[in-house]
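How a chain folds remains the central question behind the approach discussed here. No coordinates are needed to read the tokens, only the vocabulary itself. For completeness, the protein is quoted in full, as a sequence line and a line of structure tokens:
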Amino acid sequence: MRKLLQLFCVLTILFYQTFGYKILLYNPKFAQSHVTFTGKLADTLAAAGHEVVIYQPEFNENITITGSKNKNIRFYTMPRDPKFEPNFSLDSLHGDLFEEESFSSKMNMATSMNRIKSGFCERVLKDDKNFEKLKAEKFDLGITELFESCGYGVLKKIGLKKYITTFSSSVFPSSVGLLGVKAHPSYLPGVMGKTTDQMNFPQRIGNFINYFVESYMIKSMFNSGSEKAIVKHFPGFSMDDFVADSAFYFVNSDEHVDFAQPITHKIIYMSGLGKIQSQPLEKKYTDIFNSAKKGVILFSFGSVAQSHQMKSETKKAFLEAFAEFPEINFLWKYEKDEDQIAKGYSNVFTGKWLPQNDILGKHSELTVDFLTERQI
């Protein structure tokens, strides 16, 4: 009888372990790189056998992807309100990305983001029809990104108490401060600063001041707007406390290349998520590699910063710098072929779109360096 009982217990445990968790991810169509990041996380969880559901309110009409490719993922969506910020684009918030921003322009961007996030979150939190369905799902876990902080209001709405916070970039001081990690401005540069971790005394003073400015701006852009909307539904709600209560904080960074800094057990590095196997390059690219005596440099600013928007003198400065290294070929992501920006420069090749993953996959065979945006 005892052996039968033991066998029953073992079989029960094994049976339970064959089923994954039911996980909800909040992934609104606000910024494409963030949609892609959360989508890859959802794909990874679904591939591991978990039941994954994505709640995806629509806002930015320029985003046509869901971010996920796994066919087993289920979606709940909220259509875009055409009357709310009808001409929204991230470009309009950033201004000139190739010129140093003044303090006033940064504050204006933070104020605009605060207003937009607040209005968008107010609309999301009124989606009672979807919330009733989501609550009935009885999720085991919720996941939302710090940048998309209205997700915390969604979790409150459906009564989901176990959740993870994510961030699509690296760890920075004002974000981990929410988890109780003290600031160390004497050696840890802020995300908006210009210094490295090697600072002289005046730079340390500047970095110390910048920490408080950065904390205010990050909170204004990421959290304050959503918090205003959530408080209307849940008086006394504190965004800082809710973030601090996250079970984990997933960051899209590699701890070995990030600045050395104190962390907590909640911070999990997860760079390379959803990495795609590189494919063989087309002939026009292999020809570029083969003709380079000392290798190839990929030069790209991602999807937000458009190279064609640079001032003429900035473009010329880059081209002249490239010309100083004739033994190296430069692949430049440049969005307007009609500009013929590389005309007369034999070692510069441009394209509206470049197979970045495949190009970087050649690193084991040929010397490749790259200059690109940080969310990679």
Observations:
- The longest helix spans residues 201-233.
